[in-house]
Design goal:
By secondary structure, the protein is mainly beta. The chain is built from eight helices and 32 strands. The chain is rod-shaped and about 155 Å long.
Length: 565
């Protein structure tokens, strides 16, 4: 009976005649009892007929206006199957929020006395009970006698779930029974865990590799997502989420999201299932033949490693730019000095291997090979200007243009003095001029020289004279059948003469040179004209001003060979 209505004055009022004083629940219960012919107590077994089988449930007609739902996991036996029309013995457990009866397979009795409780305790059978209240430390359960269920054994995750169990019929197992003290303790969690294990066992046996299933994202981690595929968790690894690269699963998935996955692998021993999403998309590598070596391709840098950078050309297809293919100008030590993740780059396809799913890319090739026309741009003998890029013990490197460096050997730095180390005369970053001495395009080598640009007196002298010219000079030294003559400031030549007799050599050594006439003689005969009327001396001695004929000019060795006239 419902409570009487209380007026504002505080006195109870009698309900209207036409208003029923029974709750809707009582009316529905009476209607269902009348339809079935006799009252149905929760927990008592009754026969039902299977009317439908879904992915995870069995719909059963139990003779009431509303059908009952039986978890498909209840049929955990490998040979146990169910189909529409089958007759089943089921027990009513409770009603879900949608109004359907929650059923259990088989007959579950409610104890009626201590004897039946003792039997259930000894045999560890599952019994029915009704949660009556939340008490300190757990729940109070009516088994015909008052029983206690610890909160930790209720199967509820928090206090809110425990509250929902009040007035609900539950299945439980007696874990402690003391008739003298009337102390009964029950456990619901063990039943729930057994059902979950049974459900998972059946689910593992049902799932097949290659099948497509609907799932719900249960949790996210840095390495992937756990997907509920019907009572069983499967791992969706981050690499299997999309053909495009995904850094974090949380960037594209959310907890509770429903999605379609493909079963990739089942590990029966470890009870692990791996699923994928990208496997349901077309494989872009099936059309990789469209990428031809030599063609240009634009993409986005996804990863930068020590050996190179990966570039996504399209979702699911990445190519590698090796560190050696990043720059013509210099040796790249760290790829991150050239590109960063997220950069859009223009590349050239160097190679494609569809079987290995590899594409080799070149960054420097997209800029063109600077050495292709280096011989035309920097011919031997031309003068270049550029900054010093590095110094070594044996020379200096100079940048001629982007991707082309020339080397100046230490011996080609100066003609005036000996250089011990290039840093004595050059600095990194200093802009200098040099002459191209040699170029090898295939080996990508270019030799430069600085001293070749500094004109010397002997070079000018050799350029102004020819073999056979008559020139004048002062004998500087006579020794071993040769005389060394100075033809001008810093200009010397060698002259082969006949060996002199000892007495004659002594006379030559004791004689003094006529220095008074040296200046006028050099001025008059600097370009080679002999002095009129001058008689040829009988012997050559140091200090003499003599006329010579140029026998040989060697520009490369910067040598002049003379003959006496």
């Amino acid at each position: 009976m419902s409570d009487p209505i209380v007026s504002n004055s505080g006195s109870p009022e009698t309900p209207a005649i036409n208003e029923p004083n029974e709750s809707f629940k009582d009316i529905l219960s009476q209607f269902e009892q009348s339809k079935s012919g006799k009252p149905q107590e929760a927990g008592q077994g009754r026969e039902g007929t299977v009317i439908a089988v879904t992915v995870d449930s069995v719909l059963v007609d139990i003779g009431f206006k509303t059908e009952g739902i039986l978890p498909l996991a209840a049929f955990s036996g490998a040979s146990q199957t169910v189909k529409p029309g089958d007759k089943l013995v089921v027990s009513i457990k409770s009603r879900d929020p949608g109004g359907y009866y929650e059923l259990t397979l088989g007959r579950i009795e409610r104890p009626k006395d201590w004897a039946s409780l003792q039997k259930a305790f000894a045999e560890k059978t599952t019994i029915m009970g009704t949660v009556t209240a939340v008490v300190k430390g757990g729940l109070s359960v009516d088994l015909g006698v008052r029983a206690f269920m610890p909160a930790s054994r209720s199967g509820a995750r928090d206090a809110a779930e425990m509250e929902k169990l009040v007035e609900q019929e539950i299945r439980c197992r007696i874990t402690k029974l003391d008739e003298t003290e009337e102390d009964v303790v029950v456990d619901r969690r063990v039943i729930v865990e057994e059902e979950e294990r049974a459900a998972k066992g059946r689910r593992y046996s049902e799932v097949k590799e290659g099948t497509t299933l609907q799932g719900t994202v249960r949790s996210l981690t840095d390495y992937g997502a756990f997907i509920d595929i019907g009572g069983v968790d499967a791992l969706l690894h981050v690499s299997d989420i999309s053909r495009s690269r995904v850094s974090k699963p949380a960037d594209v998935l959310s907890v509770g999201q429903e999605l379609e996955v493909k079963v990739l692998k089942i590990d029966s021993e470890k009870r692990r299932i791996s699923v994928g999403m990208k496997q349901l998309e077309p494989d872009p590598w099936d059309s990789v033949a469209k990428y031809k070596p030599g063609e240009r391709a634009r993409g986005t840098v996804t990863r930068v490693l020590d050996f190179g950078a990966f570039v996504e050309l399209e979702p699911g297809i990445e190519g590698l730019i090796h560190v050696s293919e990043m720059s013509w100008a210099k040796k790249v030590r760290t790829p991150s000095d050239v590109v960063k993740p997220g950069d859009t780059v223009e590349t050239v396809i160097l190679g494609v291997s569809a079987d290995e799913r590899r594409i080799s890319l070149g960054l420097k090739q997209a800029l063109g090979d600077p050495w292709a026309d280096a011989a035309q741009k920097f011919p031997v003998g031309s003068v270049i200007e550029g900054p010093v890029t590095s110094l070594t013990k044996f020379g200096a490197f100079v940048q001629l243009s982007e991707g082309i460096e020339g080397m100046i050997h230490i011996s080609d730095l100066s003609a005036e003095k000996r250089i011990n180390h290039p840093q004595d005369v050059l600095k990194v970053g200093q802009s200098i001029k040099a002459q191209v001495l040699e170029i090898e395009t295939e080996k990508r080598r270019l030799k430069l020289g600085i001293k070749q640009l500094v004109p010397t007196s002997i070079e000018e002298y050799i350029a102004e004279h020819q073999e056979g010219n008559i020139v004048s000079g002062r004998v500087m030294e006579v020794s071993g059948g040769q005389a060394r003559a100075e033809l001008g400031e810093g200009i010397q030549g060698t002259c082969r003469i006949a060996a002199a007799r000892p007495a004659e050599e002594k006379t030559l050594a004791e004689s003094k040179p006529d220095l008074g006439s040296l200046s006028s003689m050099l001025k008059a005969h600097w370009k080679g004209a002999p002095v009129a009327g001058e008689s040829k001396p009988e012997a050559v001695r140091a200090g003499q001003i003599r006329s010579f004929r140029i026998a040989k000019l060697d520009p490369a060795a910067k040598k002049i060979e003379l003959e006496l006239t």
